[in-house]
Amino acid sequence: MCGIDYEANYTPANYKQQSIMFMQTISDAYGINRCMLPISIRQLQVFESVARHLNHSRAAAELYLSQPAVSMQIKQTEAAVGLPLFEQVGKKLHLTAAGSELLHYARAMLQLMQEMESAFDEMKGLERGHLNISVVSTANYFMPQLLAKFIQAHPKIQVSLSVANRDAVIKQLADNSADLAIMGQPPDGTDMRAQAFMQNPLVVIAAPTHPLTRANKIQPKQLASETFLLREQGSGTRGVVERFFASHKLALPKHMAMDTNEAIKQSVQAGMGIGIISSHAIEMELETNRLTVLNVEHFPIVRHWYIVQRKDKRPSTAAHEFERFLLEESQNMVAQVNSSTAHRKQSKT
């Protein structure tokens, strides 16, 4: 075996770290030269993290390692491969051709490891594991409430939550750093599976003192002269707004781009313009009369929230359970929102 005595190297202390026998099996499956190994599972984890962040410090923080330990693991991996995996250009780190190739295999191997652990947990009847969830920023207004219930019901499942814009969330799915994602507009293509689980109404908002608050059945062309406060390019909400005006043969009105919903809400309250935003993001502001929903024809635009997963990734037990949980709990949330909306309408009359 390329001069390596695997049985002589085996001890309970180093077996999990080295994982040599497992790596040999994977190398056969993927056609990798055995003589390149041993590369440990831990080294693959370190390499994948550095390749994803292109930063040793961030990888060290993510893996709870020191930066020198990360650098040492990368050097050992490069020695095993026999080629440089990264190159420094100025202050930026870049993958080499060999690094890009290894990243492809590393992610496939790490995914297989996760699937294997999940399969064994299912056989043992254990409800535990890790669940990495990535959500678009608007979903973060309701996701913590749902996660709190899920964690209370499943305390042995370790949950990690990442909040980003749509493009970043899709990248996390593609990079296999997220088990599933929550977003309002699933990506195009056939490599993702999307399951709708809750409505996501988009509404037009203004400050309570805005002249349009006194108008009924506002036509889209009446909005053309207003200043809009919109999300940045790449946001799902921004795409809906652009398609709405295009469908009415109107140019996108004068607007300012903002990268958070909070910035939009604060700016609308200050009278800088009007906005289009998910109703899930403004419940508190409506309750306290800091914002008003305008009565615009063709609004609300009812979209849906989706659970998005990779088709080529076997969902873990934790991911299966969380999907089932979301489908059940979302119905309760819709009932609560409808009740709250009816209460506000009654209060106004």
SSE diagram, text form:
Elements: H1 6-9, H2 12-18, H3 20-30, H4 41-53, H5 56-63, H6 67-81, E1 86-89, E2 92-95, H7 97-124, E3 129-136, H8 143-153, E4 157-164, H9 166-174, E5 180-183, E6 192-206, E7 228-231, H10 236-247, E8 255-258, H11 261-269, E9 274-278, H12 283-287, E10 292-293, E11 301-310, H13 317-348
Parallel strand pairs: 3-4, 3-5, 7-8, 7-9
Antiparallel strand pairs: 1-2, 5-11, 6-9, 6-10, 6-11
Helix pairs in contact: 4-5, 4-6, 4-7, 5-6
Query: What do the pLDDT scores average to?
Result: 82
The CATH first-level class of the largest domain comes to Mainly Alpha
CATH superfamily of the largest domain: Winged helix-like DNA-binding domain superfamily/Winged helix DNA-binding domain
- Major β-sheet, in short? 9 strands, mixed
CATH topology-level fold name of the largest domain: Arc Repressor Mutant, subunit A
**Distance N to C terminus:** 82 Å
Please identify the structural class as seen in this structure. Answer: alpha/beta
**Secondary-structure arrangement, i.e. CATH architecture of the largest domain:** Orthogonal Bundle
Radius of gyration: 25 Å
Shape call: globular
Share in β-strands: 15-25%
User: Stretches where pLDDT falls below 50 for ≥5 residues?
Assistant: 1-22, 29-36
So what's the oligomer here? single chain
SSE order, as H and E? HHHHHHEEHEHEHEEEHEHEHEEH
Helical proportion, percent range? 40-55%
Overall tally of structural domains: 3
Q: Count the helices. How many?
A: 13
User: How many strand segments?
Assistant: 11
